[in-house]
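ARCHIVE CARD
CATEGORY: sequence design from structure
SOURCE FIELD: tokenized fold
FIELD CONTENT:
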């Protein structure tokens, strides 16, 4: 083999190794394949059904509502009555959950404003518990997590001062799964879906601020911790030396939404927290 041939062969082998390493690094990491739905006690079912919860959300919140119905059905119980206040309608008689699709995805401050209006309106009149949950699309690598957190903290302080009869829950922001190989390749060529490591890292930064402020309140609905199975088998990743979590793929319907099991797992945590307020 000529010198030129050896150089070409060596270069080609080096490129192949680099490509293989790149593909390996872009492959999604394994996560827990089995996640049990936490047990909900009869007392917790009764306490939740006896509470009127005002819930502002978007699509992942709809997954949670489906999960609540599923958890009750699995226990042989009738699901709580749900009323839709999206168009400004107040609570229906006998409704345990009054929900509304607030704001638009990608605009967290707009969602905060919409939730304030929701609580101040007819839907807030009968509420004993209220919560607004952001979507993973609201916190991405382009977001200033400190600014959003400060706006959230101001919102909560304002609502709590003006509505002392309502108990407000706090919420972390949901996560997305590890990117698929195809999504990684698209991102490499400029088609960023805002569901990658840099985005989950900023979500982790925002969630850390939420936990530092509200974890000791007993009223933190830590959806991110549940989604990443943090208490059992944490789905932890690292980017530039900074840890972040991802949505466990065993709970996901796609990169960001919950499947039936995921909805139930998150719903069980919500039921537990709301029920705990009455204990």
């Amino acid at each position: 083999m000529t010198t030129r041939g050896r150089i070409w062969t060596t270069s080609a082998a080096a490129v192949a190794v680099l490509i293989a390493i790149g593909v390996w690094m872009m492959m999604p990491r394994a996560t827990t394949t089995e996640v049990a739905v936490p047990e909900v006690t009869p007392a917790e079912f009764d306490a939740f059904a006896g509470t009127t919860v005002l819930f502002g959300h978007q699509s992942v919140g709809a997954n949670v509502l489906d999960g609540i119905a599923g958890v009750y059905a699995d226990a042989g119980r009738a699901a709580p009555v749900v009323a839709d206040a999206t168009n400004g309608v107040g609570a229906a008689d006998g409704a345990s959950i009054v929900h509304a699709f607030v704001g638009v995805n990608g605009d967290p401050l707009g969602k905060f404003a919409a939730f304030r209006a929701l609580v101040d309106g007819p839907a807030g009149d009968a509420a004993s518990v209220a919560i607004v949950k952001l979507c993973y699309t609201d916190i991405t690598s382009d977001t200033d997590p400190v600014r959003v957190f400060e706006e959230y903290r101001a919102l909560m302080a304002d609502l709590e001062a003006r509505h002392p009869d309502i108990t407000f829950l706090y919420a972390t922001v949901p996560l997305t799964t590890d990117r698929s190989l195809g999504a990684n390749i698209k991102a490499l060529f400029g088609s960023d879906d805002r569901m990658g490591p840099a985005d989950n890292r900023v979500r982790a930064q925002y969630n850390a601020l939420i936990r530092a402020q509200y974890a000791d309140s007993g009223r933190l609905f830590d959806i991110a911790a549940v989604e990443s199975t943090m208490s059992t088998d944490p789905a932890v990743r690292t980017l530039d030396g900074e840890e972040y979590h991802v949505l466990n793929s065993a709970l996901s319907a796609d990169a960001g939404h919950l499947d039936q099991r995921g909805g139930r797992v998150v719903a069980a945590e919500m039921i537990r927290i709301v029920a705990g307020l009455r204990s």
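CARD ANNOTATION: The chain is about 45% helix and 10% strand. Residues 146 and 206 are 7 Å apart (CA to CA).
SHELF: design records, drawer C
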